[in-house]
């Protein structure tokens, strides 16, 4: 029997993939969206229920919670996005999560599934990583039956990490600047495999109280990812390592000058730790084999 599932961040990268999957499997999810017209252009109106609202406006979140059985909270501001106005990492990710939790409790919702990120830990106050950490802690201390998914960097249509690097390769003449040593580790995972994990968390209540770190079937260095993208794009360029202070200054300058910079200072947090776990974490925890990024790119390219 279909469940009443509320999805925040429904028009985002993970959210929209999850909505499409749930609809394909016979569910009619409720989507919390700020722009209904845009959402209707993404999701046919006869397959989802639209709740117009914003995680920063508690009354609108309250209205969306009626009769909800499970909340999937993916309404986060990710590190690739430039901060502006109310759209700030701490405001959206910490205060927004608190608003979702409070509304769920007022409505009698019991369960929440959260889309976080691999490597989440306490960090400098006000930083992107600290906001992600505080969001998780808010959920864990909520009294709700929570489950958290922490994926590594994701690939798929419109994936920010890969599209940003591809744009860097296309736009910078002759060379490709490398943030750090190039030896930083990542474990890219397909967004559809992330969605498969989320669906299992939604439907299997016994997963409550667990945090799952997930990645793809192989661990790649940053240099290996750049090489793979250059082969896919047919553009061979010299990789030039840049000292992190200079890379940070370059990212800060792009944030100042560009509305959608290819890299942000917050995204550089991903280079501060190995963004990888073990290559068998998805098979062991969720019972299926995830896709290799090289196989995906060979079939779909960078899109």
Overview in brief:
This protein is of the alpha/beta class and 303 residues long. It has helices spanning 13-24, 36-42, 58-64, 89-106, 128-140, 160-171, 191-203, 222-233, 244-257, 281-286, 293-300, and strands at 5-8, 30-33, 49-52, 70-73, 111-115, 145-151, 154-155, 175-179, 185-186, 189-190, 210-214, 220-221, 238-242. 40% of the residues lie in helices and 17% in strands.
Report what the structure shows.
- With 303 residues, the chain is of the alpha/beta class.
- The protein has a domain at 5-152 and 190-216 and 275-288: NAD(P)-binding Rossmann-like Domain (Rossmann fold, 3-Layer(aba) Sandwich).
- Helices cover 40% and strands 17% of the residues.
- The protein has helices at residues 13-24, 36-42, 58-64, 89-106, 128-140, 160-171, 191-203, 222-233, 244-257, 281-286, 293-300; strands at residues 5-8, 30-33, 49-52, 70-73, 111-115, 145-151, 154-155, 175-179, 185-186, 189-190, 210-214, 220-221, 238-242.
- The strands form four sheets. It has a seven-stranded parallel beta sheet with strand order 3-2-1-4-5-6-11, with helices on both faces. Strands 7-10 form a two-stranded parallel sheet.
- Strand 5, helix 5 and strand 6 (145-151) form a beta-alpha-beta unit.
- Helix 1 packs across helix 7 (191-203), helix 4 (89-106) runs parallel beside helix 5 and helix 6 (160-171) crosses helix 8.
- The longest helix has 18 residues, at 89-106.
- It is globular and about 55 Å long.
Q: Which stretches are poorly predicted, pLDDT < 50 over at least 5 residues?
A: none
The CATH topology name of the domain at 5-152 and 190-216 and 275-288 reads: Rossmann fold
What's the CATH H-level homologous superfamily of the domain at 5-152 and 190-216 and 275-288?
A: NAD(P)-binding Rossmann-like Domain
Which bin fits the share of residues in helices?
A: 40-55%
- Strand-and-helix sequence, N→C? EHEHEHEHEHEEHEEEHEEHEHHH
Distance linking N and C termini: 36 Å
Mean pLDDT: 92
Rg computed from alpha carbons, rounded to a whole number of angstroms: 19 Å
Give the quaternary arrangement of the chains: single chain
The count of strands amounts to: 13
What's the number of helices? 11
Which CATH class of the domain at 5-152 and 190-216 and 275-288? Alpha Beta
Shape category? globular
Tell me about the largest β-sheet: 7 strands, parallel
Q: Beta fraction of the residues?
A: 15-25%
Strand order of the largest sheet: 3-2-1-4-5-6-11
What is the SS-derived class? alpha/beta
């Amino acid at each position: 029997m279909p469940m009443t599932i509320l999805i925040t961040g429904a028009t985002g990268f993970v959210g929209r993939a999850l909505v499409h999957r749930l609809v394909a499997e016979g569910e009619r999810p409720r989507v919390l969206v700020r722009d209904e017209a845009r959402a209707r252009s993404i999701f046919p109106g006869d397959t989802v229920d639209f709740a117009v609202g914003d995680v920063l406006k508690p009354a609108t979140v309250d209205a969306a919670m009626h009769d909800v059985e499970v909340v999937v909270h993916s309404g986060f501001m990710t590190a690739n996005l430039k901060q502006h106005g109310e759209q700030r990492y701490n405001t959206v990710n910490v205060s927004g999560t608190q608003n979702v939790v409070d509304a769920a409790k007022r409505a009698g919702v019991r369960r929440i599934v959260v889309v976080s990120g691999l490597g989440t830990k306490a960090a400098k106050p006000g930083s992107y990583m600290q906001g992600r950490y505080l969001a998780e802690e808010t959920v864990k201390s909520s009294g709700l039956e929570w489950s958290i998914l922490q994926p590594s960097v994701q690939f798929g249509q419109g994936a920010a990490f890969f599209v940003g690097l591809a744009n860097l390769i296309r736009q910078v003449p002759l060379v490709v600047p490398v943030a750090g040593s190039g030896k930083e580790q990542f474990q890219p995972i397909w967004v559809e495999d992330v969605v498969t994990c989320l669906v299992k968390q939604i439907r299997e209540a016994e997963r409550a109280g667990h945090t799952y770190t997930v990645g793809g079937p192989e661990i790649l260095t940053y240099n290996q990812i750049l090489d793979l993208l250059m082969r896919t794009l047919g553009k061979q360029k010299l990789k030039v390592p840049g000292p992190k202070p200079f890379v940070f200054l370059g990212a800060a300058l792009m944030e100042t000058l560009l509305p959608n910079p290819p890299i942000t200072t917050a995204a550089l947090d991903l280079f501060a730790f190995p963004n990888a776990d073990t290559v068998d974490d998805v098979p062991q925890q969720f019972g299926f084999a995830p896709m290799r990024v090289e196989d995906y790119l060979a079939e779909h390219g960078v899109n």
